Amino acid sequence: MKKIKLLLVAAIACVGSVNVYAKTSDQASLDSAVQRLHAAMIAGNGAELKALTTPTLSYGHSNATVQNQQVYIETITSGQTHYKRIDLTQPSTTLAGDNAIVRDHFSTTVESGGKQTDVELDQLMVWKKYGNSWKLLARQGYKH
After folding, report:
1. Does residue 39 carry a pLDDT above 70?
2. Per 3-state DSSP, what percentage of the chain is helix, strand, and coil (rounded to 5)?
3. In the list 44, 65, 87, 134, which could disulfide-bond 61, CB 3.0-4.6 Å?
4. CB 53 within 8 A of CB 135
5. The domain spanning residue 120 has which CATH number?
6. Exposed e or buried b for every residue in 115-127, given b needs 16+ CB within 10 A?
7. Gap between the Cα atoms of 41 and 59, Å rounded
8. Does 9 score more than 80 pLDDT?
């Protein structure tokens, strides 16, 4: 009976550690996807932007402009909008199964229409996990 209890406790401990590992692994892969997205925005890498976003992307800017995936990618890859730098601070992430909510402060230097501007705003991103990959489903930037 003691051996059965000991085996049961060991099995529960193993299952618990696998669950903790899965959460840690999901968090790490999500963090990587967020970093890759912003690096692709700076580089103007359309293939990477497409790989990290869903076809149904809703990308909202702080000026109330909303772009779908195609317009979002074209705006960046054409040079119409060129991100010089992107710094993210104050991150807050909530994982909910295959979905994630990421909030942070978005600080950027962007060139658009020949004019360079420093922008400070907060953003809310909704990510969805497809297999082992996280993809951006929606993003809204806002000033307060």
Report:
1. yes
2. 40, 45, 15
3. 65
4. yes
5. 3.10.450.50
6. eeeeeeeebebeb
7. 13
8. no
Supply 89's token pair: 């601070």
Classify the phi-psi angles of 47: left when phi > 0, otherwise alpha if psi is within -120 to 50, otherwise beta: alpha
The percentage of the chain sitting over the pLDDT mark of 70, rounded to a whole number, equals 84
Give the confidence band of 2 by pLDDT, cuts at 50, 70, 90.
low
Q: Which range marks the domain in which residue 22 is found?
A: 2-142
Instruction: Report residue 140's pLDDT band, with 50, 70 and 90 as the boundaries.
Output: very high
Question: Hey, what long-range contacts does 112-119 have (CB within 8 A, 24 or more apart)?
Answer: 112/80, 112/81, 112/82, 113/80, 116/84, 119/62
Q: Which structure tokens are listed for 44? A: 């103007």
The count of domains in the chain is 1
Contact indicator for 45, 74 with CB cutoff of 8 Å? no
Verdict on whether the full-model pTM lies above 0.90: no
Please give the single-letter amino acid code of residue 134: W
